[in-house]
Write a structure and sequence with these properties.
The structure holds 2 protein chains of 2 kinds.
Chain A lengths: L7 H9 L5 H19 L2 E4 L3 H14 L3 H4 L6 E5 L26 H8 L3 E6 L33 H8 L5 E6 L5 H6 L3 E4 L19 E6 L2 H11 L26 E5 L9 H16 L3 E5 L4 H19 L17 H14 L5 H21 L5 E5 L17 H5 L4 H5 L4 E9 L2 E9 L4 H14 L10
Parallel strand pairs in A: 2-3, 2-4, 7-8, 7-9
Antiparallel strand pairs in A: 1-3, 4-6, 5-6, 5-10, 9-11, 10-11
Chain B lengths: L8 H10 L6 H17 L35 H4 L6 E2 L2 E2 L9
Antiparallel strand pairs in B: 1-2
The chains are: A alpha/beta, B mainly alpha.
């Protein structure tokens, strides 16, 4: 059987109708991991008790059928990026510094998933500490792109995106500082939803840049992302930046009154022109449906690279200061090159004499970016653009690139700095490699973002084309 | 673009010390180049007119989040100490920071 190919929505239905058992589902997922992980290196560890958990859930369902209404992810195998603390399951953030570390407590996201009945099937590979957009900066070897194993999956949530694309799980959790959900999801041809900053708790997530870190789902379809987000979202007393307003997740229906803006600066002349025109075509599909579409203008995204690099590296240098190898983990001499580069740049821009020239200036420019969005959202409800300048680049592309990640994420950094929600939805291929369309919404307006993404998805068949095994 | 901003190998050494990172003498040149390249890119911000722009301190607009000051269970000592092999009488053993080294 190939139940691993199901998406969350399908699996829920088939579990509810008793067409499948959770044990069979988990069995097929484990077999897919077993078969593909040697090639793809998407998982760092697999939950060895997943099958016994599944059997227990099957038994509970038999005794207490109403449990399906109480637990929206009952029996669904979900992969989790390795920077989420999972009690009793090794957690490294793909960094040698944390090799051998076993968390004593659970992140808010994973405890919510478990409470909703999900099975954490394993922990996925990433750029070490989430520093990168390739997964090549993992201290445990790069993940490969399931569409072409000579290509990178993107990152930093590359393991999660590859695992979803290769049907090694039904859905996955990633985290994004700027691009780390949307970029790998785009390169792997799956849906990646980055919620508003504060929508999902950061508690128990190994911190990268605390002012933008946002956990979110990577899925096979938009409805799955909506469902998972509704489970993991919400105020958390352990994260004082979480949004206090209750998260309302209505079922997704098309809403053609949404006004759409095409961000002209985001169709860069340096980008792959074929990719740009595929996204333009995708926008055409929406226009044909009667959506009002207009061209809008944002700041040149190259400014966002500079702002993001300064802010993020500054926060990285401070967040990584806690790793001393005393209470857990290994000593600081086990930091990899990319982490050292980022910590040192961050230390420099925060140090006395340089703070005003870099960090302060970056935070001023960040304000400009926030204001820029406030202005443009007076005209339109959602912004459309490509997610990435290119499709998946070859393994080795990061070699000698001191700012690979920040350069690749040029089209998602501004919205991350402003804390806005955004999604990537598959919209075509260039030479067999997937392309994603980016939809960005107002702060706290995940609903409109997913409404449009889901409507587009229903009009096209891109998510039905699968990566070869 | 002004390429005068560079971070010399000597400065890398200083920064590494501040960040408590080990950088070998052979690596100093490499990091000097890479850090300089990154810092030079930041000059693009000089093109923006920021004279009237206030500094951003946060993006959520939230103010003073307080919670009740309630006593809650914390992790038991044995669990807290499971992350290291280096313990003594129920304490973490830390590297020597005072005295001759």
């Amino acid at each position: 059987m190939t139940l691993n190919k199901l998406n969350v929505t399908q699996a829920k239905k088939q579990i509810a109708s008793r067409d499948i058992t959770i044990s069979d589902l988990v069995h097929d997922v484990l077999r897919a991991i077993d078969r593909n992980n040697k090639n793809l290196n998407a998982f760092l560890s697999v939950n060895s008790s997943a099958l016994s958990e599944a059997e227990k859930l099957d038994q509970q369902l038999f005794n207490h059928p109403a449990i399906l209404e109480e637990k929206p992810l009952y029996g669904i195998p979900i992969a989790v990026k390795d920077n989420f603390l999972t009690k009793g399951i090794p957690t490294t953030a793909s960094a040698k510094v944390l090799e051998g570390y076993i968390p004593q407590y659970e992140s808010t996201v994973t405890s919510k998933l478990k409470k909703a009945g999900a099975i954490i099937i394993g922990k996925t590979n990433m750029d070490a500490w989430a520093h990168g957009s390739s997964t090549e900066a993992s201290d445990f070897g790069s993940t490969k792109n399931p569409w072409d194993i000579t290509k990178l999956p993107g990152g930093s949530s590359g393991g999660s995106a590859a695992a979803v694309a290769a049907d090694m799980c039904l859905a996955a959790i990633g985290s994004e500082t700027a691009g780390s959900i949307r970029q790998p999801a785009a390169w792997c041809g799956v849906v990646g939803m980055k919620p508003s900053y504060g929508r999902v708790s950061r508690y128990g997530v190994i911190a990268m840049a605390s002012s933008t870190d946002s956990p979110g789902p990577i899925t096979k379809m938009v409805e799955d992302a909506r469902l998972i987000l509704s489970v993991i979202a919400g105020e958390d007393e352990n994260d004082a930046t979480t949004i206090t307003k209750k998260y309302k997740s209505d079922p997704i229906k098309p809403n053609k009154s949404l006004k759409l803006g095409i961000v002209k600066e985001y169709f860069m002349k340096e980008s792959d022109q074929e990719l740009n025109s595929i996204v333009e075509k995708a926008i055409g599909v929406l226009e044909e449906q009667g959506y009002k579409v207009q061209e809008v203008s944002l700041l040149d995204p190259k400014y966002a690279i500079a702002v993001y690099t300064i802010v993020q590296r500054a926060e990285v240098s401070s967040n990584l200061a806690r790793y001393d190898g005393v209470r857990y983990g290994n000593y600081r001499d086990t930091f990899g090159e990319e982490a050292k580069r980022r910590v040192m740049t961050g230390t420099h821009v925060l140090s006395s004499g340089y703070y005003d020239a870099y960090y302060k200036k970056a935070q001023q420019a960040r304000k400009l970016i926030v204001n820029n969005y406030i202005d443009v959202f007076k005209k339109v409800d959602l912004l459309l653009s490509p997610v990435t300048p290119t499709t998946a680049l070859p393994i080795g592309a990061t070699e000698g690139q001191a700012m690979f990640g920040e350069m690749q994420d040029v089209l998602v950094e501004a919205s991350s700095l402003a804390g806005l929600p955004g999604i990537t939805v598959p919209c075509g291929f260039v030479k067999g490699l997937p392309v994603g369309m980016q939809i960005t919404g107002k702060f706290e307006d995940e609903q409109s973002v997913m409404q449009l993404a889901s409507h587009y998805e229903s009009l096209t068949n891109w998510n039905k084309t699968k990566a070869n095994e | 673009m002004d390429m005068a901003t560079t971070i010399s190998p000597e400065e890398v050494k200083h920064i590494a010390k501040l960040a408590n990172l080990k950088v070998s003498n052979e690596e100093l040149g490499k990091y000097s180049n890479e850090l300089s390249e990154t810092i030079n890119y930041m000059d693009i911000l000089n093109k923006l007119d920021l004279s009237d722009v206030k500094i951003l301190t946060q993006i959520t607009g939230q103010k003073n989040r307080f919670r009740e000051d309630k006593v809650k269970n914390s992790l038991p000592r044995e669990e807290v100490l499971t992350g290291t092999k280096n313990t003594y009488n129920g304490y973490f053993v830390v590297p020597n920071v005072l005295g001759d080294k």
